[in-house]
Amino acid sequence: MKRIFVDYKKCLACKACETACAVRHHPSGSLVGALGDRRTEIDVRVLGIEHESFPLACRHCDPADCLSACPSGALARDPETGAVVVNPDLCKACAMCASVCTFDAISFKETHRARHGREVAHKCDLCTERLKQGERPACVAACPSGALVFGELEQNRTQRAARSLRTYLLGEEGLPPLLEAYRELRRKEFAARRGEKG
Amino acid sequence: MDEGRCRELKTRSADPAAVEMLGVADREGFATIWDRYEKQQPQCSYGQLGTCCRICSMGPCRIDPFGEGPDRGVCGATADTMVARNLARMAAVGSSSHSDHGRKVALLLKAVASGRNRDYRITDEDKLRAVAGRLAIPTEGRTADEIAVDVADAAIGCFGKQDEEPLVFAEKYMPKKRFELLKGLEEKLFEATGAKMGFLPRGIDREAVDILHRTHFGCDHDPLSLVAQSVRCSLSDGWGGSLIATEIQDILLGTPKIREVKANLGVLEEESVNVVVHGHEPVLSAKVVEMARLPEMQRAAEAAGARRVNVVGMCCTGNEVLLRQGVGMAGNEAHSELAVMTGAVDAMVVDVQCIYPALADLCSCYHTRFITTSEQAKIPGALHIQFDEHNADAIAMRIVRTAIEAFPNRNKARVFIPRHTATAMVGFTVEEILKALGGTPQPLIDLIVNGTIKGVAGIVGCNNVKVQQDRFHRGLTEELIRRDILVIGTGCWAVAAAKAGLMDQSAREKAGPGLQAVCGQLGIPPVLHMGSCVDCSRMLNLAGGIADHLGVDISALPLVGSAPEWTTEKAVAIGTYFVGSGIPVHLWPLPPILGGPEVTKILTQDARDVLGGWFFVEEDPAATADQMEKIIMERRAALGI
User: pLDDT tens-digit profile of B314-346?
Assistant: First the structure.
């Protein structure tokens, strides 16, 4: 099953993923349409954890705690892509799904898909429509630094492992040296802000 | 407040007055720069690496720093081109801000000298004659007005002249060896590359416009050429715009003298009308101070139930009036919101630069009148009282009256002024330093030669929310004086040092034995306040004076610079003109250059060989002081001392 993998050291917090997600899930399909529209759905959020940043979205677990916890059948698994998707018409906004979600990846608000002006659950749908057309999720396609990768777990794991091992076994460089320096100095900056010695 | 939160607030500022005020902010639910900074997390690394280009509408473009994605913008620009262009634009903006400030005072001097302005006068004729002498303007048998017209014309000419010759101010003030080096460098680079690159500034406006032109879509893409022009533009600030601002302000408002003042929020007075002057240009704020001291304003204040009108300074406007008129210094940049939260500020009067627009909303939560005055700095939500040099007295009076009228609306129950102040001895202009030394830099040179003082460090600039307020300023300053390195400086650093008591005579106890003895002998603190951020020109001037006295270049002298909490584009210009003048400069936080390996190499390594000044980055104050001391010792060794 294909999933979105996060190579967090490559996340530069540009938030292109957030913008792409908003545009993809907006009825206008355009940035201009989504701007300033409070009902715009953004299902990935780049969180800053000290000097690191991490684009957080639904991991589409299987089995998924949210899916088991939902009393109204609003959450379902898309058989083709394996994505956990919301049917806003059935959602009672009880927040059981959000309560049990390990990654806090489910939010509530009145989205464009919500009827009757209700707040409903919204979360990453893995861009199932795009996947069915052979495209990658919008956030992955928008990521300029390769922090978001869409692929088979095994293939991705092997690739990453091989890359890391080149560093360990062959002494090949990992990150470019100035980028290593940048990361290190940023780490020190945040440590100093906490009142700790870098 | 619970203990955890208290600890957290202490990580925001090293100044106990600020920590107390942040408690008030918490209680009242006010957002400050620190809260807004948290909300901005995480901040985009493309911006921090300098590899985001928004120059044309084919973009924005970004370079993948991991080397897997795009390595060129749409037009083909490399990461180094982007970084160099962005940096050049920062230098141009910084230089323009200082220089435009200088332009206004030059025009004012002309107006005063030609009798078109009667609100100001030539206050320091000695300085006028000294500046004229420096510029080779005849003074014998001429009136002050006649000389001043020529000085003003010389200054005004530096902004708009169109020939290829260096600015007259740069030529006459820059030490000979530096001037020759830069001139020779232009020739050498032409021989080596066949391409023209210049370092000596031709016109102040021109050098900034040149950068705007060459960074336009499809012009200069060569990192070295872009950096060279950034240096030239910055030199047009340090040896041009800022220098003109300093020199002419001294002529018009008086050259600062050594005096003692109080610094920190405790200078606000519970029973008085408090006016905070904040920004950079003293032309207005000096008038506000003057008008506030008039008997009729005193009467008006008393009629409103106040003891007096207490004008206090903030940021560099504060530095200017503190040096010349001895007003109290409320704080540096990061203090601006905190001052309002004392509930005791009746008016905050601002001119240009470094004014948070957030102050408008904050002031509306109090009785505080937030008054903007400059055509170039209007802020929604503020009361705009347009300043005009030709009607300065009346406008300053209206501003003071507005503050007095606000005083009765003050909610006394809400007033909380943290009881923190420190005494600071300030006003160490080049003139005052030379006077203290007996008219020549020789005694200072002797002290350096015999090792009593190892060298001199110039520290400048800013608070930055990414650094615990004043922590780096205090830490680095203390580390340096402990190593017998004399510390001089300006701007928000100077305010930080003053608040920390480092400009008090008692601070000499924190200095090493050599510096301690010198301070005792001369009756000075080990940390010298040289002025506002345009007054970094005073530091250049001092360095230049010593260099000329010894017949060497500035780059041979045991001098170092630092901007340890830098924020603004002005700091980029200052750092760059220090480097261009032959002084190594420490920076923290990170400048947005690491995305461009070649630019990083030029600024941190190549510049060392070519200009004798270079940049280095370090987060830890003690480690920074180590590096600065090492540079000083290397330079001493090279001089054979």
Answer: 999 999 999 999 999 999 999 999 999 999 999
What is the ipTM, given to two decimal places?
0.83
Cα B286 to Cα B322: distance, rounded to the nearest angstrom: 10
Q: Are both B492 and B609 inside the same structural domain?
A: yes
Instruction: Say which amino acid occupies A170.
Output: L
Closest Cβ–Cβ partner in B46, B467, B589 for A14? B46
Tens-digit pLDDT string for chain A (198 aa):
899 999 998 999 999 999 999 999 999 999 888 888 999 999 999 999 999 999 999 999 999 999 999 999 999 999 999 999 999 999 999 999 999 999 999 999 999 999 878 999 999 999 999 999 999 999 999 999 999 999 998 888 898 888 889 888 988 777 888 998 999 999 999 998 887 765
DSSP assignment string, A103-127: T---EEE--TT-STT--EEE---TT
Q: Are B337 and B283 contained in the same domain?
A: yes
Domain that holds residue B169: 79-251
CA–CA min distance B34, chain A (Å): 11
For B102-140, how does the pLDDT look when each residue is reduced to its tens digit (9 = 90+)?
999 999 999 999 999 999 999 999 999 999 999 999 999
B339 and B433 assigned to the same domain: no
Please give, rounded to a whole number of angstroms, the shortest distance from the CA of A101 to a CA of chain B. 23
Say if B334 falls within a structural domain: yes
Chain B residues closer than 8 Å to A56 by CB: none
Q: How far does the CA of residue A49 sit from the closest CA of chain B (Å)?
A: 8
Interface test with A, best of B39, B48, B53, B66 (most A CBs within 10 A): B66
pTM of the model: 0.94
* SS3 (DSSP) at A182: helix
Contact A14 B617 (CB under 8 A): no
**CB-CB neighbors (< 8 A) of B617 in chain A:** 185
Residues of A with CB under 8 A from a CB of B: 10, 12-15, 46-48, 52-53, 144-146, 175-176, 178-179, 181-182, 185-186, 188-189, 192-195, 197-198
Q: Do A186 and B590 touch (CB under 8 A)?
A: yes
Best to test chain B binding among A44, A178, A194 (most B CBs inside 10 Å): A178
Task: Confirm or reject contact between B450 and chain A (CB < 8 A).
Answer: no
The verdict on residue B256 lying in a domain is no
Domain annotation covers residue B448: yes
Residue A84 has φ and ψ, to the nearest 5°, of: -85, 120
Q: Is A98 left (phi over 0), alpha (psi -120 to 50) or beta?
A: alpha
Partner-chain residue, chosen from B70, B594, B619, that has the shortest CB–CB distance to A188: B619
Query: CATH assignment of A59-123?
Result: 3.30.70.20
Residues B592, B448 share a domain: yes
Nearest to A174 by CA among A17, A9, A12: A9
Helix (H) or strand (E) holding A56: strand A52-56
Q: Are residues B455 and B598 in the same domain?
A: yes
Q: Is B510 part of any domain?
A: yes
pLDDT on residue B163: 97
Q: What number is the average pLDDT over the span B48-60? A: 96
Q: How far is CA B593 from CA B123, B280, B600, in A?
A: 44, 28, 6
Q: Looking at the structure, do residues B499 and B577 belong to the same domain, yes or no?
A: yes
Q: Which fold has domain A1-57+135-198?
A: Alpha-Beta Plaits (3.30.70)
A59-123 matches A1-57+135-198 in CATH topology:
yes
Domain ranges in chain A are: 1-57+135-198, 59-123
- B35–A contact, CB cutoff 8 A: no
What's the CA gap between B33 and B35, in Å, rounded?
Answer: 6
